[in-house]
Write a structure and sequence with these properties.
By secondary structure, the chain is an all-alpha fold. The chain has a domain of about 130 residues. Helix content is about 70%, strand content about 0%. The chain is built from 13 helices and no strands. α7 packs antiparallel against α9 and α7 packs parallel to α10. The C terminus is likely disordered.
Length: about 280
């Protein structure tokens, strides 16, 4: 039995305590989805089975997240950790390349998960919660390791060997990697903005960041969120098209500030801004 299994057993014993039972009874009284559950273990078993985007799982997680948002009781976070345990364990295994120390990686995974839970806006993102929170956790985890590596690289700039490169015309080989990190952060932020604006979904975001930012295989990213390859391929294509259309529209809008119904003569006569929203197309 590994350390994660031992910790999971300890967590299982904790949620069997009366205070957690009272929280479950509270939900059984107010939420129809909880009436079939007699223990938090039975809830965890249900969450482990079936598809991650099963709407019934939203019916379970939504009241818990709403209760946590209302009172910030740490016991709700413990319950959520218990319910997501197998997903976090699997995510940690898939991200094992991020850290040679498995215990440090696990601790960072749990921390990323708790941050995702505490910052989750249930009003804005009420659906696909099991999948969404898992994806947000793994994204945060990768981003924090990326930032940590970048900080280490910046600190190394004070090394004498690096200063020699700075004094001459030779480009230090580490600088290219720093530039790549910057590009990764920029592209991830770009997709994050589209997600927040509702132009792409959590699944789209996961596929775009996984394949286009980190260079992972589409099939691998698709398996993580329960999609077959062909469906994932179509989703990513639609998401890229939606982003391109929005960015193209924004570019045209910035090129010519005239509203579409004004039809300014300067645009029509000179045809300089033929692509603007107020000119000819």
């Amino acid at each position: 039995m590994g350390p994660r299994d031992v910790e999971r057993e300890e967590l299982g014993r904790e949620v069997k305590q009366a205070e957690y039972g009272a929280l479950l009874q509270r939900l059984r009284t107010s939420e129809r989805a909880f009436r079939r559950f007699r223990s938090w273990e039975s809830v965890a078993v249900f969450m482990r089975k079936g598809a991650s985007d099963d709407p019934r799982k939203d019916d379970v997680l939504r009241p818990i997240l709403a209760a946590h948002a209302a009172d910030r009781d740490a016991r709700w976070r413990t319950i959520l950790l218990f319910l997501f345990w197998s997903r976090l364990k699997a995510a940690c295994i898939r991200r094992s390349s991020l850290d040679q120390d498995a215990e440090v990686l696990w601790g960072n995974t749990v921390w990323a998960f708790l941050r995702a839970v505490c910052e989750w806006d249930i009003a804005r993102r009420p659906d696909r919660l099991f999948q969404g929170i898992t994806n947000t956790t793994t994204w945060r985890l990768s981003r924090e390791y990326q930032r940590a590596r970048r900080r280490n690289e910046i600190e190394m700039l004070a090394d004498p060997s690096v200063i020699e490169y700075l004094a001459g015309e030779t480009v230090h080989p580490g600088f290219a990697e720093v530039d790549l990190r910057d590009e990764h952060e920029h592209r991830t932020a770009r997709f994050s903005e589209q997600l927040k604006a509702g132009r792409i979904t959590e699944a789209d975001f996961h596929l775009l960041v996984g394949t286009l930012v980190y260079g992972r295989l589409l099939r691998e990213c698709a398996e993580e969120i329960g999609l077959n390859y062909q469906l994932a391929k179509k989703r990513r294509q639609r998401a890229e098209l939606a982003i391109r259309r929005f960015e193209s529209s924004e570019k045209r809008r910035k090129t010519c500030p005239h509203p579409p119904d004004s039809l300014p003569s300067v645009c029509l006569e000179t045809n300089v801004n033929a692509d603007c929203e107020g000119g000819e197309r």
